[in-house]
Amino acid sequence: MENIYRFSVQLIDGETLPLKLLQGRPVLIVNLASKCSFSVQLSALEKLYQKYRSQGLEILAFPCNQFGRHEPLEGEMLREYYRGQVKVSFPLCQKTLVNGPDAHPLFNYLKAHTRGIAQNRAIKWNFTKFLVNSEGQMVARYAPRTKPESLHTAIEGLLTYENRPVQFAKL
Length: 171
What we know:
It comes from Pseudoalteromonas fenneropenaei. The chain is an alpha+beta fold. Helices cover 21% and strands 16% of the residues.
């Protein structure tokens, strides 16, 4: 069965994260942008992470400038905004394309494995969320308007208390 474990992503500090390191953990993947009106969801995402990280949840955030040019920040400014101003502690990846011919293969996989009406559809805006189970398979895709607070039940259904958080070298 296909899963996300064949992909690697680049973290904001340049470190490569092979997603196979997340085996056995549910993952919430979200494309985000600092200047988007949905960026108010960042604190709710951080609350989810703080609540469920010890039970295995990982959140991977991908800044993206494809929608309304809402992610103008680069490099250290990008890191400072998310780590310093907003204070998110979940893994932050480098700026990533989620649509088009140069889209990251992870997002092509997520779009292709979305069930139902959104299957294979392009991501339409910032803060689209993808929930992946502990076997690395797509479980659900959520629209940008879906508030992170509404994901508690779905996340709790995927958690196992034996999971331990992943320790990244440089965050």
